[in-house]
Design goal:
This protein is an alpha/beta fold and 410 residues long. It contains 15 helices and 16 strands. Helix 4 (119-135) packs across helix 5 (151-165), helix 6 (191-208) packs parallel to helix 7 and helix 8 packs parallel to helix 9 (275-284). The model has no long low-confidence stretch (mean pLDDT 94). Bound molecules: zinc ion (ZN). The site of zinc ion has 4 residues, from loops.
Length: 410
């Protein structure tokens, strides 16, 4: 069975090509009165409706809606359980993360909530969250572990993520083992021992059980050092796992340079990055993932987007969905903030949540509309892509398809 989806404005989001293969204009590949032919979960044809192949199958006319690739959220901590509203209120009263940590808040609070949860409970929470994300137009979602801190609990989180990844009625899930996030409370004085056990036991076990595609580390002051992350990366890369890094959220400790040295898939946050670091990322083709919801929550200054542009960095925008610093599951909200707070153009923001995001996750058949790609589509009740950046994360997806199947809407 084939279906031809017709829409007043189709965006192929193929990236920096003047004219896309399907004839779309500009980096977003705009096709007015366009159509996408879906056959067996893949895109069989895309172009102007008037040129659609004859006898292509039944036509579904989406009228004036905007048709884009399914959104790709390339940085989330979506497998969390529990609520951290108490520390949010503390934060709003002016407490900084050190005070919050001293009162038992922060990452350790999510760790405790996980300790009290089964794989089934974590999975149920994650599934519900992914359904809500799908209703916002997200069709691919990276999900990190990282609240377990001990191997047993990290594995519990990764098993819940693996359950969600098997479910075709949810967005496509890309699992990441966030191996160095925080020291467990009882290891504060034994960090070498902790890093060694993560590198020598946890990473090999995760690789062997195929529980993750990427390994991540939080490289920052008061987090992990570049040497510790380098050691982790060596263990991960030796087992075929690729690297993503949290870099420069609070301070520039050389994380971007490390990400380039490791040919990481992505370096994320980047509020604090040197020109050398930014250039190194661009030269190595490492994606630069911006997380504006987090810097909004923390009232931080934006990253140096002008610098990132100047060096030719490939930008990604993600939600950073987490219970502490980005308490929102909405990638559309992150897009609105990327435009409002960071000054991204609509093109930069939207490519950052479609094609660039998919490539950063090693999902080459997603995040763009081209022949042979997965039929991941969103029809928005919006007249134009600029309108997608403006309504503050409101759910305006009318129809969301993953591989041709309805994830949300009708
Ligand atoms: Zn994060």
């Amino acid at each position: 069975v084939s279906t031809l989806y017709r829409s007043a404005r189709v965006l192929t989001c193929e990236g920096a090509v003047a004219t896309s293969a399907s004839g779309g204009e500009g980096p977003l590949g705009v096709i007015r009165d366009g159509a996408v032919l879906v056959r067996e979960g893949r895109i069989a044809w895309v172009g102007p409706f008037a040129q659609a192949p004859a006898g292509a199958g039944s036509t579904r006319d989406l009228g004036q809606s905007l048709l884009t690739p399914g959104l790709v959220d390339a940085h989330t901590h979506a497998a969390w359980v529990g609520s951290r509203h108490e520390e949010y209120v503390m934060k709003m009263r002016g407490a900084d993360y050190r005070e919050i940590a001293a009162k038992g808040g922060g990452i350790v609070s999510s760790h405790r909530a996980l300790l009290a949860s089964t794989v089934g409970e974590i999975h149920a929470t994650l599934r519900a969250r992914l359904r809500r994300m799908a209703s916002l137009g997200v069709v691919t979602c990276e999900v990190k572990s990282g609240y377990g801190l001990t191997f047993e609990l990290e594995e519990r989180q990764l098993l819940a993520i693996a359950e969600a990844a098997k479910d075709p009625s949810l967005p496509c899930v890309v699992p990441t083992f966030l191996a160095l996030h925080a020291l467990p409370p009882d290891m504060k004085e034994r960090r070498d021992e902790y890093v060694a056990s993560v590198c020598e036991h946890a990473v090999p076990a995760v690789a062997e059980k195929k529980l993750a595609r990427f390994v991540d580390a939080y490289v920052d002051q008061n987090a992990f050092t570049t040497d510790e992350a380098r050691r982790l990366a060596a263990a991960a890369q030796a087992r075929g796992l690729r690297i993503r890094l949290h870099v420069g959220q609070f301070a520039d400790v050389g994380g971007a340079e490390l990400g380039a040295e490791l040919s990481a898939a992505s370096c994320d946050h980047l509020e604090n990055v040197s020109e050398t670091g930014a250039r190194a990322l661009a030269d190595k083709g490492v994606f630069c993932t911006l997380l504006p919801t987090a810097s909004f929550t923390l009232k931080q200054a934006p990253p140096d987007v002008a610098l990132l542009r100047r060096v030719g960095a490939k930008l990604v925008v993600a939600s950073d969905a987490n219970p502490g610093t980005a308490p929102s599951e909405s990638l559309p909200l992150a897009l609105a903030l990327a435009v409002r707070l960071y000054g991204l153009s609509t093109e930069e923001a939207l490519l950052g949540a479609t094609r660039h995001a998919a490539l950063s996750l090693s999902e080459p058949d997603r995040g763009a509309l081209f022949v042979g790609a997965h039929a991941d589509l969103v029809a928005w009740d919006l007249p134009h892509e600029d309108a997608l950046m403006q309504p503050w994360g409101v759910p305006l997806a009318r129809l969301v398809l993953r591989e041709g199947r309805v994830l949300a809407g009708a």
